[in-house]
Amino acid sequence: MTQISIVRQILLNTNAGLLPYLNGQLQTSSFSNFKAQFGFHVDEYSTQVVSNEDVVKIQTTLLLALKLLINLSSG
Fold it and tell me: What are the pLDDT digits (tens) for 16-31?
């Protein structure tokens, strides 16, 4: 399993994180008439079995699914 700090770094890093980037974009003049709220949820999946004629092996592949919800309101 992925350490939660890696996921937090991807999402929250002040220089390259996804959420600070989205927050900055939502504060531009294009969205100045709107109030924005956003939230997220991360799902993690990680096991895949690969087999061929001679050998069955377990290969672990990490997949992260990030679900974002952005609400914009004019009030």
Answer: 888 889 888 888 888 8
CA 61 to chain centre: 17
Q: Buried b / exposed e across 24-50, counting CB within 10 Å, b at 16+? A: eebeeeeeeeeeeeeeeeeeeeeeeee
Task: Give the Cα separation of 23 and 14 in Å (integer).
Answer: 11
CB-CB neighbours of 7 under 10 Å: 14
Q: How far apart are CA 52 and CA 40, in angstroms?
A: 39
- pTM metric for this prediction: 0.53
For 11-62, where are the E strands, in sequence order? 35-45, 48-51, 56-59
Tell me the per-residue pLDDT of 30-74, one tens digit each, with 9 for 90 and over. Answer: 888 888 787 777 777 776 667 777 777 766 766 777 788 888 888
